[in-house]
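Tip: read the tokens left to right.
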């Protein structure tokens, strides 16, 4: 069970620990994919899900993937800047649990993808969902954490607005 500080709030260290756990899950799964699959290799798991090794030098949905290489450092700096801002926000709003949970998810995912960009020059993606002949772009644990965090921020804001009415 998580320890609470004197104001009955989870502290910064707990949110950072959660982010680190997500980061480790992301990096371990990516290392497993890199060690087990060649680029482009795919393995069917179910009728709607494959494991596939793909490299994304762009952002979400391969945005700017075809740029000349500057995007690697642009998205790296953007991720580092976002991480710094998120840590500051976690430090200043520790009692807002849903808000901090969402930020911690985004932090873990953002740092996971920054590590890939620095080490490899691209992000390793491997989760490939498809249905009725349509493919969702492949993604990874970091992308999932970022998406869940974004949904959490939206939910937190909707709940905040509802409480103020």
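Filled-in amino acids:
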């Amino acid at each position: 069970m998580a320890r609470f500080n004197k104001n009955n709030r989870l502290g910064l260290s707990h949110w950072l620990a959660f982010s680190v756990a997500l980061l480790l899950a992301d990096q371990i799964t990516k290392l497993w994919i890199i060690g087990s699959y060649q680029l482009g290799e795919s393995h069917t798991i179910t009728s709607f899900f494959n494991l596939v090794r793909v490299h994304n030098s762009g952002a979400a949905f391969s945005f700017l993937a075809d740029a000349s290489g500057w995007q690697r450092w642009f998205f790296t700096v953007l991720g580092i800047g976002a991480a710094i801002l998120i840590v500051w926000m976690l430090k200043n709003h520790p009692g807002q649990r849903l808000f901090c949970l969402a930020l911690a998810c985004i932090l873990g995912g953002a740092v996971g993808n920054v590590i890939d960009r620095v080490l490899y020059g691209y992000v390793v993606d491997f989760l490939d969902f498809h249905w009725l002949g349509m493919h969702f772009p492949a993604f990874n644990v970091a992308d999932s954490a970022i998406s869940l965090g974004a949904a959490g921020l939206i939910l937190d804001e909707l709940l905040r607005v509802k409480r103020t009415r």
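Residues 12-164 form one domain. Residues 94 and 135 are 39 Å apart (CA to CA).
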